[in-house]
Amino acid sequence: MFRMEKGRRGAGLVLVALISLMALPCWAQTQPASPPEDWVGKLAGLDTPPDLDLAALRQQALDRIKSRTDPVPLKRPPVAMQLLKLPQLVAEIQFDEDAAVARPESYRVLGRIADTLTDPSLLGYKFLIIGHTASAGRRDNNLTLSQRRADVIRDVLVNTFKVSPKRLQAIGLGEEQLLDAVHPTAPINQFTQIATVGALELNPPPVVPAKPVTPAKAGTHGHKR
């Protein structure tokens, strides 16, 4: 008798729970566990534009590799500390192994990046695409591969998703700026950074042509009487 009453009580509790769940509004039943990552917010808030010389930065990374400085990845400092202070996001864009060919499944991520960069609140800014690799293989090859991949991402954003080329620059830092230096071979070190680097000059001042210099006229000499 006691067991039957206990079973009935349990069934009643389940029935009440089901009725309560059905009474919830539809939006409460369909809410995701956590909101999507705010990429627009991550790229906003640039205080001071960095003074970046990308050609010099590439050469600095190459020189460090050639000099064999810091051969142990764990002891290797970032080659460009100023990039760490910028508003940025990190995205996983998959490539063919040892190649600069973006896989088809990555175009969804690239499309989301394009949507982020063309958000009205970010239209007045320029961005830097930063390619990385994990610490495996030759450092010089990784540097070259990361640059090629960063260039491919820029090309896809410009040609496929119609982001203005004036707003995008690209640089590859290989394994010279590991995203997870504690775990040099971790997959996250293959990810791509997008960083806000400055304001876009939408209406540059007009170039005023220099006025031509008019040669001085020769003077007229009078005759003495």
From TrEMBL:
Domain OmpA-like: where? 82-206
Q: What is its main location?
A: membrane
Q: Does Ribonucleoprotein appear among the keywords? A: no
Asked if the record carries the keyword Ribonucleoprotein, the reply is: no
Pfam name, any one: OmpA
Name the chain's protein.
Outer membrane protein OmpA
Membrane spanning residue stretches? none
Gene3D superfamilies named in the record: OmpA-like domain
Sorted alphabetically, the keyword list is:
Cell outer membrane, Membrane, Signal
An annotated GO cellular component: cell outer membrane
Which organism is the protein's source?
Answer: Bradyrhizobium lablabi
Q: Where is the signal peptide?
A: 1-28
Protein localization: Cell outer membrane
